[in-house]
Amino acid sequence: MSALSQLGPIESPLRASVVSTPEGYAGIEASDEWRREVARLKQERRAVILAHNYQLPEIQDIADFTGDSLALSRIAAETDADVIVFCGVHFMAETAKILSPDKTVLIPDEEAGCSLADSITAEQLQEWKDEHPDAVVVSYVNTTAAVKALTDVCCTSSNAVDVVASIDPDTEILFCPDQFLGAHVIRETGRDNVRTWAGECHVHAGISSRQLEEAAVSNPAAELFIHPECGCANSAIYLAGEGTIEKERVHMLSTGDMLTSAREVSGGSTVLVATELGMLHQLHKAAPEVNFQPVNERAECGYMKRITPAALLKCLADGTDEVTVPADVADKARASVARMITIGKPGDGE
After folding, report:
1. Which of 87, 141, 331, 336 is the most exposed place for a label (fewest CB within 10 A)?
2. Over 80: is that where the pLDDT of 147 sits?
3. Is 255 a known ligand-binding residue?
4. Which parts of the sequence bind [4Fe-4S] cluster (predicted)?
């Protein structure tokens, strides 16, 4: 029996204010009263709150740890908390459960999905594997547990190149699900035997080449921090090659690498950021004197933003929604993640 089942619901005076809407849970705003109540419930649950970099600022600020999905999952595995509250999307909470099978993992809103993870199912991957029986499957960690279980080795956005480069050059590779990260890997490794799945994150795919070029031309001295999931990534390389943008300004970075690089930027400089808007909160905290500007001001993930103050309070008070992964699936998925960690830079989840 899990710690959650033993505890049951906890009375909370704010719980009655929570209402369910098609967009998620509402009725409560971030306030000192909310923060005190979250702290109390967290203590009673013996819980730890993890928040992804794309979460609402108030969720990031109340979390015990903020970061990318894989780093947070590692923290979940190391903590002595009984309950992991993962403020992110569903595949991230699944990964935490895979790496922490004996802990209770909760997600504040079970409807917080992911268009990228949903772009390939386990059934589709199995059919692809059957068509290429001698190929090695490399899957981005932004996938479901069932897909990870059919994967030979997982990768992150920062170590995808190292993972693919570690595989025998004569071996065919099936890379899924992100086509833009796959294109980045092919470009960096020069391999011609990597097949990519036509999946994408709808938010990153929506950051267009035109927006990138306009922003870069309008800010000729600005650095460009571009996530390799972005639809504009290939365009950035092309523009740099054509001389429209200086090559030195273009940086393909995971979310974790963006934070590291932000601390090295001179104060007063402008940095154009191509990723989900929630990342700007962490970047501003890491380098408050740098002017971080989004390439696309509408690059917001509605799934991430379902984790509201109301959803977090409901989750802690009610003990919902619990994330489970069948033991056989978890064992296979854990093996593919473990293989990734032994190769190159551990990196991050996005």
Report:
1. 331
2. yes
3. yes
4. 114, 201, 301
